[in-house]
Structures are given as structure tokens and as C-alpha cells.
Amino acid sequence: MQAASALSPATYILDGVRKGLMEGTALSAVLGDVLPLALMGAVLIPTGLWLFGRAEHFAKRTGKLKRVG
User: What is the pTM of this model?
Assistant: First the structure.
């Protein structure tokens, strides 16, 4: 589970918030948690948008998308 948690953005968010609020560390010390989040956002958001567009195109083409209105 520890290896799988390295792929979860929640791990880095919770670790950074814990360090900032409970330990009072500076932003520079939390940079190790911010960089993986920025990298994940730069990769996963465009990938998700692209996949959604492909799925929507497929659903429209095959008639699986119900059009209301």
C-alpha cells in the first residue's frame, strides 16, 4: 500500500498540510510535497480532458449519449 500511496495526490496534500499546520514549517520545506502535485496536475488534468473528449465523441457517434433539450 505504501507504493500505491505514492501515486495518490492525497498523500502529498495531507503531508504538506500536516507539516504546515501542525509543525509550522515554511513553504520551502513543503516544496517536496508541492512539486509532485504540480507534476501530477500538469499530466493528469490534460490526460483526463483528452480521455473525456474521446469518450464523449464515441458516445455521440454510437448513439449511447442521450440528448435532452
Answer: 0.72
The CA radius of gyration of the chain, in Å to the nearest whole number, is 19
* C-alpha cell of residue 54: 474521446
The dihedral through the CA atoms of 57, 58, 60, 66 has a sign that is negative
pLDDT of residue 63: 85
CB distance 30 to 19 below 8 Å: yes
- Please compute the mean of the pLDDT values over residues 51-56 and round it to a whole number: 96
Q: How far apart are CA 2 and CA 28, in angstroms?
A: 25
What type of residue sits at position 1? M
Tell me, what amino acid is at 13? I
Helix, strand, or coil here: 36? helix
Residue 69, SS3 per DSSP: coil
C-alpha cell at 62: 454510437
